[in-house]
Amino acid sequence: MKICAIILSAGESKRFKSSIPKFMHNLSGLPIVDYNINLLKKIKKITKFEIISNKENLNYFQDKGYSPFKQNPVDGTGGAVRQFYKKNNKYDYYLVMLSDTPVFDYKVISDFLNKSVKTNSDISVLSQNISNPKGYGRLILNNKKLVRIIEENDCDNIQKKINLVNTGIFMISKRAISNINLIKKNPNKKEYYITDLIDICNNKNLNLTTIVNSGVPIQGINSVKELNDLEILSQNYIKNKLMESGVRIYQPETVYIENDVSIEKGVVIEPNVVIRRGVKIKKDTIVKSFSYLEDCRIGKNCSIGPFARVRPSSDLQDQIKIGNFVEIKKSKLSTGVKINHLSYIGDTVVGKNSNIGAGTITCNYDGRNKLSCLIGDNCFIGSNSSIIAPVKIGSSAYVAAGSVITKNISKGYFAISRPKQKNIKNKIK
Fold first, then answer.
1. Helix, strand, coil share of the chain (percent; to 5)
2. 224-415 has which CATH code?
3. Measuring CA to CA, which of 43, 263, 306, 364 is 20 to 30 A from 58?
4. How far from chain centre, in Å, is Cα 365?
């Protein structure tokens, strides 16, 4: 059995009021369309998936390594499927999804696909019951059999009260999709609606069913307000999964966590923390309030923050302590390092059990190039020190507070670099 999945992505996003199409906007760290692209890659039963795009958006998908099917003219969802089917008619089923309606849990679509095939449906619609159905197409049933989908603009007052709505996700058999040319343009929108295929196939007595989504809600967007609502839904999904795996999140409504993070059980996340893509946190670490982590690795039993920032390409090993107002950039901190407050460490390797005092900075940029520093094991860097890269500080070295270090320090040596203090009697009365 051959199944082709289609993502419809040729709309002009006129209602979204943005300079870029709505499916390109980020949602918890991912472009909206990427949710469905990534989802389809996980479902092994799908033979092929295709993105249907308009001319203006082709470059976006091509730059991501895809070869989209160009819809021309752009004449609605039914027009997109009709154009595609004309050149791709060898499949047994067609799974139709939308680029602006992300599905967070791939199991929802996998189950929908399996049930559709098992019941031998010619058209199966994934639906859901929602309390406020405004903007969605309503499903019309007759003795529990699907007979029609009516778009919001075409609903009468009674139909607008129906809470069973279309998610825009269809499973269509080859027998049903062969009727795609019978769809007529909607007189109001001057477009072909894929939903009109339901009415056509019902008149031909084909097997039409709806499967009601009981999993994570599916929500499309037509405005920035709806995008914000979807962000809340996405965040709840991400954080609920983490909490189910044993991650403690205090006041989760204040915490922002993107996709593509790995956080192990026993990790504690305090309020007002931001964790962006690429972050990996090992077990029993605590991330304290107002900390910001991005594309970094943090080991076991670490304490991060409060008010800490760990930037991309930073690798913090086990039992690290990063205190308030400490920023780490593209650096490796070995086990047991302590940087308690008010420091910047960039492009630096710090050895085991070294202590970096308050106000220490590595001066890693000379105006043209980023330069690196190496600090050995068991070093003590006194407060308010500036380490001018490139510098190597040997293990067990000691740097006096207030020093400006411009030369290498050998293992076990003490370094001090301060102007000589002068005490002058104050003659001003």
1. 20, 30, 45
2. 2.160.10.10
3. 43
4. 32
SS3 of residue 153 by DSSP: helix
- Label residue 425 by pLDDT band (50, 70, 90): confident
341: annotated active-site residue: yes
Catalytic-role residue among 70, 185, 341, 392: 341
pLDDT at 306 exceeding the cut of 90: yes
Domain boundaries, the chain: 3-212, 224-415
pLDDT in tens, 271-284: 999 999 999 999 99
The amino acid at residue 413 is Y
Whether the pLDDT of residue 427 is over 90: the answer is no
Q: Cβ–Cβ contacts within 10 Å for residue 357, how many? A: 20
CATH no. of 3-212: 3.90.550.10
Residue range 118-149, pLDDT digits in tens: 999 999 999 999 998 988 999 999 988 899 99
Show the beta-strand stretches assigned E in 177-319: 208-212, 248-249, 256-257, 262-263, 268-269, 274-275, 280-281, 286-287, 292-293, 297-298, 303-304, 309-310, 315-316
